[in-house]
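Much of the work behind modern protein science is quiet bookkeeping, done one molecule at a time. Below is the pair of lines this work produces for a single protein:

***
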Amino acid sequence: MTMTECNTEMQSFPQQVIVGILVPAGQMGQVGQVGQVGPACQMGQMSGQMGMGQVAPQVATFPYQAMAAPAIYAKPEYVYMPQMAQLAPMPADGSSSFPVTPRSPQRQASPEETDTATTAEERLERPRLSTSAARRMRRKRAAERAAQAALEHRGEKVAPLSAGRVKSDSINSILENMDFLRSQLTSGITDEVQKALVTIQGHVWQLAQHALGCRLVQLALETGCHEAALLTRELHGHVQEAAVSPHANYVIQKVVSTLTWAASSFVARELVNSCARLARHRYACRIFCRLQEFCGNRDLTLQLIDELLVEAEDLCRHNFGHHVVQSVLEHGHEKHRKVVANILKADLLSFAKHRNASYLVEKALSYCAVEDQRALLSQLGRTDVIVDLARSQFGCYVAKSLLQDERVNGQEALNRIQALAHDFARTRHGQRLLVEIGLLQE
């Protein structure tokens, strides 16, 4: 049989899978005697034993019946067929004699899905946080996102701030050896201190943003070495970001309070034109307080306070801004105290009853110029005003200061309050005032 006739014969069985062994032409006469050629599996006989297009790998051979002509394939009397994987159907054009088993695609879980699954398992095992702990965690993550967004806006990439998972291997090594580095910095041995400073060098900004790393940087700055001052160069350009960071703000405060003006002046320089905004921030307001305490007479610091006091009236009432104004009264220049005193005198009774501004009224009575103190006392020292302040939740603190001030004749006001003691005792702040001025036993 020629190859063309063979192909024609094979195409006449579209529902069969044929396995044949081609016999060399010189041995065709022996086929009838030996009868050992590859079996073919007819679909009709094996439909109960295997699916369409399945082939057995091992088949017993059987002698063939007498054949009229040489054959390429023959049908066995019995074939044992084990279960096999399904094969692809043979192409209609007969281009391939052996069908190929297709691979069923196996979907691989993506890293994101794996991480999600792991995270879900960890959540099941993780103990439930208390309300306060969860609140602190939310605040911490919000601070991290804010700092991350600020740095991405500048085209930089930074690791999470307070989670402790810093990407750099060097940073991880520093954090792992925190205790050893701390012992080196506090040893007082010059060589040991120098080794620790060299280890920190190049990672100051990343460490400053870390909950533990910021403490190490502060300790390095406290050594007072020239090399420690050089570390601050890595903070240049990051002052505003550090000022609003829950960790790096402590590093900036340490720079101002520990190093010389030559090494720390960059802090004030980078705050210019952002004072009013940063003075209202929970963390950044501390930087202005440290500048007032340690660098209050420097021209750059005076420039910052000039910029701040443009919005002094609002800052006096602000939850965080009033701390900066209080620092101006305690440590600032006389001209700046004068500005604050004039603002307070413009609406003194309202400021004296305010939650935040009442502290400033008390400080102004102690730190402002003598003439400004007299002007304040002329308004606040009257008996009716003192009694009115004593009824207020926050004004009662100012009333107590006035009653204890030797410059105020407070006996009449004290008698009036004693006569109204029953009314004052109805409120918690009234009871506290009566106890503090000695009109009520605890």
